[in-house]
Amino acid sequence: MTYSDSSDRFIRNEREAKIAARADQLAGIFAERAPKHDLEGTFPFENFNELRGSGYLALTVPKQYGGEEASIYELVLSQERLARGDGSTALAIGWHIGLLKQLHLSGAIPEELFSELCLEVVHDGLVLNELVSERAMGSPTRGGKPETKAVKVEGGWLITGQKSYCTLSPILNKFIVAATMSDTDTVGSFIVEAGDGVKVLETWNTMGMRSTGSHDIAMNEVFVPDRYHIRGKASDQLRKPVPTDGNMLHIPACYLGIAHGARDFALSFAAKHQPNSLQVPIADLPNIKRLIGEIELDLITARTFLYDTADRWDKETGNRENLKIELGVAKHLATNAALRVVDHAMRIVGGLSLSKAFPLERMYRDVRAGLHNPPMDDVVITNLANRALGK
């Protein structure tokens, strides 16, 4: 029997319906808190307590360790629905669940260590992120080398440096950092524990995504035992890398979710708003219908490509290397569609859309952050051109 959900054709079975329902419930709660956290630029600790209590933190943890072992498709579905309520919370937790999926697929760390991390997520509510960016590097995806240093000492390493855009920093008890190793001058990755020598510098005060807690983290000779050196070993060069890029679809899922939330608000407003100069609500006006139609076209196009790409990535395990360009296209389409959708939603609502009493001005600011998440638009376009040219 084929499962169908008239509310969303991208929900294909009962498991996906449950995942979406949980995200919808959380999104409704988070939407109530979002304006205050956005205005004050504060981190929504209570949202992450809700995520812990609901089991959301273990969405991509393998079943053998007590998680749900969500596919990339299910990750996208859950994240898109969550972002309809609060983009900052969705983007922030996306890095956590995406990283767990990446570590599981890649086998980049020993199974014993990975199982320890997973059990901490399931039982203790551990939240993880990988900190790569530095202010002197620019985008890490463009090949910058970290200035953070890892100096070899007996039994481990001393890590010194400062990372930027450290999303989730207020609640990171453990995190992964990239550092240049002193003995080989190559880049390695290390699990660092919060504590002596680790300090969160509250630098995050931005136009959009104000509640992600993406502050800087400074490290001063932080000791990391050898078992927490997880990438950059000589043995890594002997293994063929496993494509794990599908986890990055959490980014376009988030921005499409924000756009969908803006669409829902604009539709509700248009159906009810009737100035005294009109005999009908503004939803009946031809120019408003045109804007609504363009919103629907953008969402249908971007969502279809996003979900199709996620589904292909899950199923075509032997073709994942060739799907990297499609992953970039999905992000490009979703982010730019989200910008247009929120803009159209604001045009529908009119001058009231600029008011902080409504969510649209926050959504407008939040979706712009997508332009600065990887991969960048120019990289996506260049990759398409190179493929067309056979390069």
TrEMBL record:
One of its GO terms (molecular function) is acyl-CoA dehydrogenase activity. Residues 132-222 form the Acyl-CoA oxidase/dehydrogenase middle domain. Residues 31-103 form the Acyl-CoA dehydrogenase/oxidase N-terminal domain. InterPro entries: Acyl-CoA_DH_C (IPR013107), Acyl-CoA_Oxase/DH_mid-dom (IPR006091), Acyl-CoA_Oxase/DH_mid-dom_sf (IPR046373), AcylCo_DH-like_C (IPR036250), AcylCoA_DH/ox_N (IPR013786), AcylCoA_DH/ox_N_sf (IPR037069), AcylCoA_DH/oxidase_NM_dom_sf (IPR009100). The keyword Flavoprotein applies. SUPFAM superfamilies: Acyl-CoA dehydrogenase C-terminal domain-like (SSF47203), Acyl-CoA dehydrogenase NM domain-like (SSF56645). Pfam families: Acyl-CoA_dh_2, Acyl-CoA_dh_M, Acyl-CoA_dh_N. Residues 252-370 form the Acyl-CoA dehydrogenase C-terminal domain. It comes from the Bacteria. Coiled coil: none annotated. The keyword Oxidoreductase applies. Keywords: Flavoprotein, Oxidoreductase. This is Acyl-CoA dehydrogenase. The lineage of its organism: Bacteria, Bacillati, Bacillota, Bacilli, Bacillales.
